[in-house]
Amino acid sequence: PNPPLPRLPPRNSMAPTASCPKAEPYAWPYDGAIQRDTTALIIIDMQVDFCGKGGYVDSMGYDISLTRKPIEPLSRLLAAARDAGVRVIHTREGHRPTLTDLPKNKRFRSKQIGAEIGAP
Question: 114 — alpha (psi -120 to 50), left (phi > 0) or beta?
């Protein structure tokens, strides 16, 4: 089954902390407390290009079942974080409009599969 998530008191509660699961080699944070005003959940690169049917990775022919596997657990964690009033930050991959930050090999690979980054 799913492992339990750390629990913060409800958003309107006066209690600011929750206990942290046991960690090795030492407890983190050091005192085992998670405070909503100093904590953020950061979710990185959970976007169609990496995890979605028809996205870049899928178009390259890779099995996306592994990149899709964390979607359900992350959905539960995201809901718990939002319910507790924890700041949530999502990142995504992107490039400048000029594509000057796009590595040449990445553009080449995308062109080979018919999905060239930056093509009209």
Answer: left
Please give the Cα distance from 104 to 120 (Å, whole number). Answer: 18
- What b/e sequence results for 8-31 when a residue is b if at least 16 CB atoms lie within 10 Å of its CB, and e otherwise? beeeeeeeebbeeeeeeeeeeeee
Give the separation between CA 56 and CA 73, rounded to whole angstroms.
23
Whether 6 contacts 18, CB under 8 Å = yes
Tokens found for residue 113: 């599969």
**Beta bridge partners of residue 34, listed in sequence order:** 18
Whole-number Å distance between alpha carbons of 27 and 23: 5
Query: Any long-range contacts for 101-110 (C-beta under 8 Å, 24+ apart)?
Result: 109/60, 110/56
- Smallest CA-to-CA distance from 44 within 92, 95, 87 is with 92
Tell me the pLDDT tens digit for each residue of 53-100. Answer: 988 888 888 899 999 999 999 999 999 889 888 999 999 888 899 999
Structure tokens at 18: 């929750």
